[in-house]
Amino acid sequence: MLTFLHAADIHLDSPLRGLDRYEGAPVEEIRIASRRAFENLVEYAIRERVAFVVLAGDLYDGDWKDFDTGLFFVEQMSRLRKADIHVFGVLGNHDAASKITRSLRLPANVHIFSTSAPSTQRIEKLNVAIHGQSFASQCTAVDLARSYPAAVPGWFNIGVLHTSMSGREGHGSYAPCSEACLRESGYDYWALGHVHQREVLPGRPTIAFPGNIQGRHIRESGPKGCLRVLVDDQNKATVEFVPLDVLRWTTATVPLDGAEAKSEVLERVDDALRRVVEASENRLTAVRIVLTGTTPLAADIAANSRQWNADVRATAIDVDAEKLWVEKVKHEVSMPVQQSLAEGDDSPLAEVAAIVARLTASENAASELGIDLAELERKLPVDIKETILAADPHWWREILADAEAKLLAELKG
């Protein structure tokens, strides 16, 4: 049985902007996480004696600061060469030929597909044909897949493509293609990259995004790694996920319904964090803690958020200081119904509640607030811009709920 690995979106030495502003962040561990995850990929390939490795773009995160990033890659490829494992890869939008101004001689076992036209690499002893094309420039907006070579009859055909295949929202439109086009290609496996969420489409041929091998922020949460592909005598591929990440991002939602004392809240936080540690598979975990539900403590949490956040972080340290880092504490709690505002109330408290309710129901809260989002984003630093998810209704609800809680707490003294 043929076995190979499919990985993508390595983003070696991603700059991880804004880390320094996070309280107590394990900055060095996060900075080197992409390298450690890539080392895990290489070690797994050698240990499992796979036939070859496919890298579907964005090996790098952009132009190198110096040659150190490239030298690290060469070193890892050399380890695979000594194990007689070949590597076939394409360049994506982050490491397109137009973006990488430096270069290094790669070991003989590494083939990066040309940027000028799609081509085919044949592995005669395995009856495998691998087809691919690299991005010449970051803004590659044409459908590259339509020009890929015809499948080699009777062989196992792999298409390697960095793409924003239609239907995958929230990603830049690069080398767009349709699922139908890929299915009509005659290939047996499409090794895709660019989308950081793992996805394996049902049916034949197998079309798969492995996701990135290491999450870089809270929006890239959950296990990250590569796909191990096993091919049977009928050229049917079976896919298995292999976790490679060394740092895992996750969200722990802690319901506080009915909690009347801080000690009870912190006990619930403690329980939730212990479950996070158990699920981490001995990895360092960056956790966002979200306090939800209705509790009479809601006003105090809003008014004294710094104290509450510190208590939550202290709880995390007590649970496991080496395996847990609290990325953020979010408050989405509300007062019980009996303590909320009475109908017909025309006090300032009622006015705040009414305004928030109207804005929460609005399709364009920013406009109602008189906020020019384009102008705001233009003025903000890049790392702050990335936290503004203006098109996400859930983000607006969180912002408005937080603002309401703080204002009501202030008005109540």
Automatic annotation (TrEMBL):
Gene3D superfamilies, alphabetized: 3.60.21.10
Q: Which InterPro entries match?
A: Calcineurin-like_PHP, DNA_Repair-Maintenance_Comp, Metallo-depent_PP-like, Mre11_N, Pesterase_YhaO
What's a single GO MF annotation on this record? exonuclease activity
Domain Calcineurin-like phosphoesterase, by residue range, is 3-197
Tell me the keywords, alphabetical order.
Exonuclease, Hydrolase, Nuclease
What protein name does the entry list?
DNA repair exonuclease family protein YhaO
Q: Which domain of life is it from?
A: Bacteria
Q: Please name the Pfam families in this protein's record.
A: Metallophos
Ranges that cross the membrane: none
